[in-house]
Amino acid sequence: MDKKLMLTGLQPTGTITLGNYIGAIKQMVENQEKYNSIIFIADMHAITVPIDADTLANNIRQLIAIYIACGIDPEKNLIFLQSDNEYHANISWMLECNTYHGELSRMTQFKDKSAKNANFSAGLFTYPVLMAADILAYDADLVPVGIDQKQHVEITRDIAIRFNKKYGETFVVPEPLIREAGTKIMDLQDPTKKMSKSSESQKGVIRILDDINTIRKKINSAVTDSVGKVNYDPENQPGVTNLINIYTSLTGMSKEEVVAKFENANYGEFKKGVADVVVAEFEKIQARYNELINSDELDRILDEGRDKAREIAKKKYEEMKNKIGLRR
Ligand code: TYM
Predict the structure, then answer these.
(1) What is the dihedral of CA 172, 178, 179, 183, to 10 degrees?
(2) Cα(first)–Cα(last) distance of the chain, in Å?
(3) Does 204 sit in the ligand 1 pocket, CB within 6 Å?
(4) Which member of 12, 42, 104, 116 has the lowest number of beta carbons within 10 Å of its beta carbon?
(5) 3-state SS record for 129-147
(6) pTM for this entry
(7) Which of 6, 10, 194 to mutate for ligand 1's pocket (most ligand atoms within 8 Å of CB)?
(8) Of all protein residues, whose CA lies closest to atom 36 belonging to ligand 1?
(9) Catalytic pick among 184, 197, 218, 271
(10) Alpha-helical regions (H) of 186-234
(11) Is there a catalytic annotation at residue 197?
(12) Domain residue limits, the chain
């Protein structure tokens, strides 16, 4: 049987976090032997909210280097920049005309972001359809994401099913790939809030290129509780539970094993243990990143990726146009 296709993308809105790494990138790296895989930089998504042009361009280059440094193997993955492939926006338009205003209004991420700034762009509203285009253009089976993107994969499924019914089998209906631990890594200073790239909190967010001492300090000052014992208890010990999730996601140990390992530890010792695994992983990534960031290899990878991605998406685009009746 043919291998399944796994696909994901990250927005270059800021230096990526430990949450992004665990929710998306690490899953891609772990599964790249098992599945065919596509990973792209969702730069067109990044302009749904205001962003300075040079910052965006720098973030794009940084993110491609981070992908490779994290172990995304260019031989095993199709890697490209979304804006290099004009078919995404074209496909998105055809899908938009098969998506309801009402269903987009119900997207929680849209509700949250639009509440923060009443003067939001139309792109912020239609963003999930562009995400559907990213996925459906390639017939992806599996989409590794954190839980915050699950609703967007679900609307992608709804759009695909609707289009298939109306115009005949056109798209594979994808599934989200979400791991149990680490579906949502929380802010270290406010464990009720997602650790987010665009967060203003610096202390609560670990970024993949933070220097090692800063990472240790951030983990050491993570908010815990007064229970004083390492338990997996999201309700009453959200900070400690978050640190357990980080530990399990990076080591592959179960949460029970982590709790047992730190049974007699105080919070200082436990935090040191967590910092050790984060630092061990990020030190390697940062060393590779520094070698890669100024190399021509990145451009070569993106050029090659662009050509392959365009070829695949063009076919889907032509098929959709034809089925819809956009033809002479
Ligand atoms: P983005 O850039 O916000 O986040 C990238 C990935 O990281 C995951 N993630 C987290 N996982 C665990 N804990 C967290 N605290 C955390 N924060 C973020 C996200 O779930 C995501 O998987 N719309 C997407 C990008 C995108 C995309 C796509 C993804 C565009 N097109 C097609 C998959 C397929 C986004 O904004 O992700």
Answers:
(1) 170
(2) 38
(3) no
(4) 116
(5) HHHHHHHHCCCCCEEECCH
(6) 0.96
(7) 10
(8) 11
(9) 197
(10) 212-220
(11) yes
(12) 5-183+296-324, 212-289
Mark whether 166 is an active-site residue: no
In tens digits, the chain (328 residues) has pLDDT values of 689 999 999 999 999 999 999 999 999 999 999 999 999 999 999 999 999 999 999 999 999 999 999 999 999 999 999 999 999 999 999 999 999 999 999 999 999 999 988 899 999 999 999 999 999 999 999 999 999 999 999 999 999 999 999 999 999 999 999 987 667 999 999 999 999 998 887 899 999 999 999 999 999 999 999 999 999 999 999 999 999 999 999 999 999 999 999 999 999 999 999 999 999 999 999 999 999 999 999 999 999 999 999 999 999 999 999 999 999 9
Among the four given CATH numbers 3.30.70.360, 2.60.120.10, 3.90.1300.10, 3.40.50.620, the one describing domain 5-183+296-324: 3.40.50.620
**Residue 261 appears among annotated catalytic residues:** no
**SS3 state at 325:** coil
Contact of 281 with 60, CB cutoff 8 Å? no
Token code pair at residue 219: 């983990």
Is the distance from the beta carbon of residue 26 to the nearest atom of ligand 1 less than 6 Å?
no
User: How many helical (H) and strand (E) elements, i.e. helices and strands, does the chain have?
Assistant: 14, 5
Q: Compute, in angstroms, the gap from residue 283 CA to the centroid of ligand 1.
A: 23
Q: 84, 72, 5: which is closest to 37 by C-alpha?
A: 5
Q: Does domain 212-289 have CATH number 3.40.50.300?
A: no
